[in-house]
Amino acid sequence: MTTAIENVRVFDGSAVGEPRRVVFGDRVSGEDTGVADEVVDAAGGVLLPGLVDAHVHVVRGRADLEDLARRGVTTGLDMGAWPREFVDEMRSQKGVARILSATVPAVGAGGHHARMPGFPAEGVVTGPDEARAFVGRRVADGADYVKIVTEAAPPEGMDQATVNALVEAAHDHGLLVVAHAVTTGAFRVAAEAGVDVSTHAPLDAALDDDTIARMREIGMVSVPTLTMMEGTAKLFGGNGFRYEHARDSVTAFRAAGIRVLAGTDANSAPGAPFAPVHGESLHHELALLVAAGLTPLEALAGATSLPARVFGLDDRGVIAEGKRADLVLLDGDPTADVAATRNVKGVWIAGERVQLQSQVDEPAVEPSVPRGGKRAAADVSTGRPGVEVLHDHDSLSRPGRRGDAAFQDDGARLHRRVRR
Description:
Blueprint: E1 3-10, E2 20-24, E3 38-41, E4 46-49, E5 51-56, H1 62-70, E6 73-78, E7 81-82, H2 84-91, E8 98-101, H3 112-115, H4 131-141, E9 146-149, H5 160-172, E10 177-180, H6 184-193, E11 197-199, H7 209-218, E12 221-223, H8 226-236, H9 243-256, E13 275-276, H10 280-291, H11 296-301, H12 305-310, E14 327-330, E15 344-349, E16 352-353, E17 365-366, E18 386-387, H13 393-397
Parallel strand pairs: 1-3, 1-4, 5-6, 6-8, 9-10, 10-11, 11-12
Antiparallel strand pairs: 1-2, 4-14, 7-18, 13-17, 14-15, 15-16
């Protein structure tokens, strides 16, 4: 089926153009005068590439992907799910957001993640000698990148040498490495190991200049998940965690030229202390990024062209001939006011129009089950899907435990670069 959108202003990555006609099937056509099966009058609306949420967790299955799509998020980067059969099923879904996945993350033996009911034993890495086997299992699972949790210090978590070994093994397989880090010490470990992408932002203090300089040196990309940091700080503020530290770190990232992607840690895991809503929360994330100092153009790039470039999604992220017809039609100009991304009037995924829900404002987060409620991890015996969300309760209850004393290295220096 061929669709034509008329009287639409196209966002080209740097500006919104004059009204014109865009024709597409599953790919964007280079000919804007062709005959179309369906014609949509945009009435001067703005057309964006489909949005990318660079940190999600798929728990409810297709329902999560539908929620993403209805709010204009056509690609989600899943940061921890299992078993493999569930991940493969979610990758094959049609007419909803498409996902990539890290599958099972690497965690230390004694931390919160390893103790989650149903967490796969294969995700526990106790030393450098186990790193290559772990990465080999992720390759066998078809992981699109490797996720590691750098938060807890030994004996609960992984030491520097183990993190280094995981990064080296992943890079040998051509895979990017994404590191979970919510404290300054965890960022230092990730930066020293040469990870490609950090996810979350520090809540114990604004990140120091030396670590930011190291991030810039190795080309590390940030996915700060300010939506999750905002909610987490409210829950754990009594432990000295403050949202302002995360926000100010993002401001410093921008000043240093570190690329910032939009990601939310959206999840629907029962028992998660904080649960950003799939789809809707990305619009809140864009607003928080702008409040942290990014321009609307920079925030939009962080949800479109930049994640596509960093994660090698060459077929999307821009509206151009031959690219996937992942498109979002808005009422309003988000380059002038980023809040306009909420005014979704149409969504197409690979040229297929998504059925939008009624235009009712949704909360950016869902009420959650108190800690100690239903388990959020996979039930391996039944094959129920699992998810790794932010909350390492050990590190949140004892801030700063991954400080300089734990920041030891075996001298390895990795120089992997993400795509530019």
